[in-house]
């Protein structure tokens, strides 16, 4: 008999809120604790796993960072997540803690539910659901539905009973949280911070704490060890999708990968991304660029119109040096125009 269950922390939060940054900080500060990471991304490039492995954190090896292959974790729990957990638990040396990064479009509740499966429940408990929030985006009303637009959409579709997909995701993620991390504090003034806090308070369950952070830097002592036992507490975490058995689809969103040649100047690529993001209401672009004559890979990150790039690590001998970017947005993106814009053609 095992003395205690392995704690698992679920990290949720919208695209680009800072989940990977938070996890990188957590791993850096883990002080010898064996943490296994399960990562799920929307889009066909495993950027997050690559970024985490690229930062060379001690004790964070290839085997400890597991990427789920199929679609969005909340809809593929049985196909992908459970076999992964089974394999993790069968290891000779199981981890001390499991951290799961959901895709920015995932609903956390179906994932929490997966921990009630008998073979998982006896070995693992959900220590806490942590929702990472982009303070700047929330304060700017990114997740609030324009009431006039909602009314118009309802008139067009009588079955529509809810707000925009972005607002719904925000609500679902906060409703399920045991702790909220209000991230990107460097990007907001006091008034904007207060607006973001008010938006969170509208949906957070009673007694859920909000901690403020920059670049996801939260002390692991605060983040881990919440002892929530969330799998035994599903009823207190309402979801818009409860009536559908937790099912939801991602038809509201789409993603595609754009492959480009090596670039002469990363700044030129970042400028093109800025222009494209401004013109096309893109939610997220991320990936890696190959730069002519440089042995290092250039990581590229765009959240809305905010674009960032930095050299992260040398290209490995087995890797093809190409520029590959995943583009994510709400359905209806003008793919040819976006590709042309990124190419600069
Ligand atoms: N200014 C600022 N930028 C931040 C902060 N936290 C994260 N970022 C940047 O925001 C971008 C997205 O951060 P990630 O940590 O990759 O976000 P994510 O939630 O993992 O993104 P997805 O996995 O794509 O959903 C990166 O360019 C980060 O450097 C912050 O506190 N302040």
Automatic annotation (TrEMBL):
It holds the Pfam family CobW_C. Transmembrane segments: none annotated. InterPro entries: CobW, CobW-likC_sf, CobW-like_C, CobW/HypB/UreG_nucleotide-bd, P-loop_NTPase, Zinc-reg_GTPase_activator. Residues 253-344 form the CobW C-terminal domain. Keywords: Chaperone, Hydrolase, Nucleotide-binding. It catalyses: GTP + H2O = GDP + phosphate + H(+). It comes from the Bacteria. Zinc chaperone that directly transfers zinc cofactor to target proteins, thereby activating them. Zinc is transferred from the CXCC motif in the GTPase domain to the zinc binding site in target proteins in a process requiring GTP hydrolysis. Belongs to the SIMIBI class G3E GTPase family. ZNG1 subfamily. This is Cobalamin biosynthesis protein CobW. The lineage of its organism: Bacteria, Pseudomonadati, Pseudomonadota, Alphaproteobacteria, Geminicoccales.
């Amino acid at each position: 008999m095992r003395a205690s269950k392995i704690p698992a922390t679920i990290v949720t939060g919208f695209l680009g809120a800072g989940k990977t940054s938070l996890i990188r900080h957590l791993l850096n500060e883990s002080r010898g604790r064996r943490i296994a990471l399960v990562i799920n991304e929307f889009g066909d490039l495993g950027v997050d796993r690559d970024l985490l492995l690229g930062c060379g954190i001690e004790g964070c090896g290839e085997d400890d960072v597991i990427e789920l292959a199929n679609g969005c974790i909340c809809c593929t729990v049985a196909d992908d997540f459970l076999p992964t957990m089974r394999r993790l638990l069968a290891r000779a040396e199981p981890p001390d803690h499991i951290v799961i990064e959901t895709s920015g479009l995932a609903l956390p509740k179906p994932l929490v539910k997966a921990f009630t499966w008998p073979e998982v429940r006896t070995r693992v408990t959900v220590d806490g659901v942590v929702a990472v929030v982009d303070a700047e985006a929330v304060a700017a009303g990114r997740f609030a539905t324009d009431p006039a637009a909602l009314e118009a959409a309802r008139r067009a579709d009588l079955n529509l009973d809810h707000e925009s997909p972005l607002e719904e995701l925000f609500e679902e993620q906060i409703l399920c949280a045991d702790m909220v991390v209000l991230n990107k504090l460097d990007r907001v003034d006091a008034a904007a911070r207060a607006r973001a806090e008010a938006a969170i308070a509208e949906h957070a369950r009673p007694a859920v704490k909000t901690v403020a952070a920059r670049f996801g830097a939260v002390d692991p002592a605060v983040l881990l060890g919440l002892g929530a036992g969330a799998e035994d507490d599903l009823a207190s975490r309402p979801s818009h999708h409860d009536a559908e058995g937790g099912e939801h689809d991602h038809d509201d969103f789409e993603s595609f990968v754009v492959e480009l040649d090596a670039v002469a100047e990363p700044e030129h690529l970042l400028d093109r991304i800025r222009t494209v993001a401004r013109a096309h209401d893109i939610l997220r672009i991320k990936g890696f660029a190959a730069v002519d004559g440089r042995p290092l890979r250039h990581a590229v990150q765009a959240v809305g119109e905010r674009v960032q790039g930095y050299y992260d690590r040398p290209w490995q001998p087995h890797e093809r040096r190409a520029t590959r970017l995943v583009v994510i947005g709400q359905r209806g993106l003008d793919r040819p125009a976006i590709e042309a814009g990124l190419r600069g053609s």
